[in-house]
Every structure is written in C-alpha cells, then in structure tokens.
Amino acid sequence: MAATIIGTARETVPGERRVALTPETARKFIAAGASVRVEQGAGLSAGFTDEAYATAGAEVVDADAVLQSDVILCVQPPVPERLMQLRQGTVLVGLLSPQAEPARAAAIESRQLVAFPLERLPRTTRAQAMDVLSSQAGMAGYKAVLLAAGLAPRFFPMLTTAAGTIRPSRVLVVGAGVAGLQAIATAKRLGAQVEGFDVRPETREQIESLGGKFLDLGVSAAGEGGYARQLSDEERAEQQRRLAEHLKQVDVVVCTAAVPGRPAPRIISADMVAGMKPSSVVVDLAAETGGNCELTRPGETFESGGVTVAGPLNLASSGAVHASEMYARNLLNFTSLLLKDGALSLDWDDELLARTVWPERQPG
C-alpha cells in the first residue's frame, strides 16, 4: 500500500504567521511511514526554513503539488477556491470552522473532503495532546499580558527607587480558562498584584495556585464539561454591580472569557469602563467573538475617557515559533490516529475521529 502523502501549504490569511507542520513533526511523520510535502516558504514566518524541512526528509514543492496530497494540514481554513482544487476525498485537518462560512462548507461537501475541524475535538483526557484550542490559548494569554504591559503607562512590579516606592499594578484577569490562567501566571511573573475572576467557583484553586487572588463576586455559573453556563438576568445584574465597584481600583483588565460556539459573554459594560481610573487599560482577548467588553472594537486599540481599550486579533500568531511547535505537535498526535503503517486508515469506531469529523458520525 502506498505511503500517505501529508502536505502543508503556506497560510493565506493576512497576518497569519503560524505553520501546521514543523521540521520536527515532518521527521516524525516520515519515521511513521508517510511522505511529507511542504510548500516553499510555508514555515519561514515561523522561523522554519525550506532547508530545515528538506533536511528532515520532506519534499519542498509548489502549492499545486501540495494540494495533491492525501492529507492537508492547515492552521486557518483554506479559502473555498483552494478547497475546490483538492482531490475528492482529501483529508483536511486544522481549525476549519466549516459552518462559519457557507461557501467553505459547500466546497467541503462538493469535493467530498474528509474534514476534521479540531475545534470540535472532544475535551477528554486522551485528547489533551491534540487540543489545539488549549495550546494556542496559552500563547494568546501570555501575549495579551505583554500587550497590556506595553500599553499601561506604569510599571507592573513594585519598585523601590531613589524617587520613592512605586506600588505594583493591580491586574484583573477575567476568565480562568487556559488563556486566563496563562495570563495570570504571566502577570504574576512580571510582578503585578494579580486577581482572577471566573463565574465557575471551581477555578479558585487554579487561580490561587498561580499566585493570583480569586475575586469572588458572589455569583456562580458552574456548567457542564468545565464550561460556564449563561447567567440569569438577576445574576448578571448583581455580578455587574459588584464588578463595577471593583474595577474602580484596577489598573489593567485582561478579558479571556469564552463560551464555545457562542458569542463571547458581555461582562464589562461601557459604564464600567467610564468608572475606571484614567490611564487604565483593558485588553480584550475575546474580541474575535464579539468581546467581553462592550466598547471593544475587534482589531483596534483606542482611548475612551482616558481608558485604553485594545481588541487584538489572532494573538497566538504573534508567538509564531512556539505556537507553531505546539500546534504542529497537536496535529501530529491527531493525524497519527488516521495512519496505520504509513497508510491512511480511518477507524470510525474511534470516538475522537467520529466526533471530530464534520459532519459528525456515530462511532461504529
């Protein structure tokens, strides 16, 4: 049986610097019996040269040759025109969001592609090593705090100087998922006085383990699968009242709260921002799904009443080297489930494959 050809093309979304395949994972795919094709220059913006891929044993080819691969690995979903160039039955693995764009979904169905949108991966213990959302959220949370530190007109740590003592900045991280916990850890390393807020009470221990203080506003929204449920109107009103009072004392807010498959929960209102101290900073990592802050403008940084509000997009891409290394290892671990002795073998009895593929299949 012929070896499966695994290919990666250069990302086409503006500003995307990550790559779905590194020389390290190319070498491991080849050791497992597959062949690897990489488009010329695909990894350059993430620090991986064509020579490094060639040394790992991959073929460095043009885009047309990559598109004839059996398995295509990607970061962002290819445009519909490119999907239509793939052979029927090609396996596609990446952050695909097929239902977010009708033309993309139609192209996948038209070419009968076997699409594995990894944002659909079940959150189980076995799937942890394949969890691209978590690995990329970690980078985004780290970069969000560095962005906040750059925008804030103050030091993060406490300093004792000849001009007197500088108090540490007070940083509040909203949301204690992977991105939020990384943000808490990063702000703590920078010397800030850090608090973490999440409507799930079980996150208290995680926040405190990283040196942060759990901000308890007296409202719990513990839900299923480790995610938050939506709050009732009464719960939300009480939460917002208490949060508004607390924000008057905060220097920096980093927002990371998200509910999978839904717009980001609106947590910080325009009135809350108006009540914050001038020179305060809000960095809204949830900007891509609407933002946790009412004032957030996706992709923009601006001032409102002396408060800087930033809505960065695709922050993980700004840490392209390590983000790509983590992402590529996630894809290696998942794609290895599709291979047997180097040949493509799709086992629909495997729950991870059956539940991740789009449209979803029942195992068996």
TrEMBL record:
Q: Return the GO cellular component terms, semicolon-separated.
A: plasma membrane
> What job does the chain carry out?
The transhydrogenation between NADH and NADP is coupled to respiration and ATP hydrolysis and functions as a proton pump across the membrane.
What's any GO biological process attached to this entry? NADPH regeneration
Signal peptide stretch: none
Query: Can you say what this protein is called?
Result: NAD(P) transhydrogenase subunit alpha part 1
Q: Which residues form the Alanine dehydrogenase/pyridine nucleotide transhydrogenase N-terminal domain?
A: 7-140
- Mind telling me which Gene3D superfamilies this protein's record contains? NAD(P)-binding Rossmann-like Domain (3.40.50.720)
EC number(s) recorded for this UniProt protein: 7.1.1.1
Question: Which Pfam family, any one, appears in the UniProt record?
Answer: AlaDh_PNT_N
Give the Alanine dehydrogenase/pyridine nucleotide transhydrogenase NAD(H)-binding domain ranges: 149-311
User: The organism sits in which domain of life?
Assistant: Bacteria
Keyword list (alphabetical) reads:
NAD, NADP, Nucleotide-binding, Translocase
Family named by the database record: Belongs to the AlaDH/PNT family.
Q: One MF term from GO for this chain?
A: oxidoreductase activity
Q: Which PROSITE patterns does the UniProt entry name for this protein?
A: ALADH_PNT_2 (PS00837)
Q: Which reaction does it catalyse?
A: NAD(+) + NADPH + H(+)(in) = NADH + NADP(+) + H(+)(out)
List the InterPro entries: Ala_DH/PNT_CS2, AlaDH/PNT_N, AlaDH/PNT_NAD(H)-bd, NAD(P)-bd_dom_sf
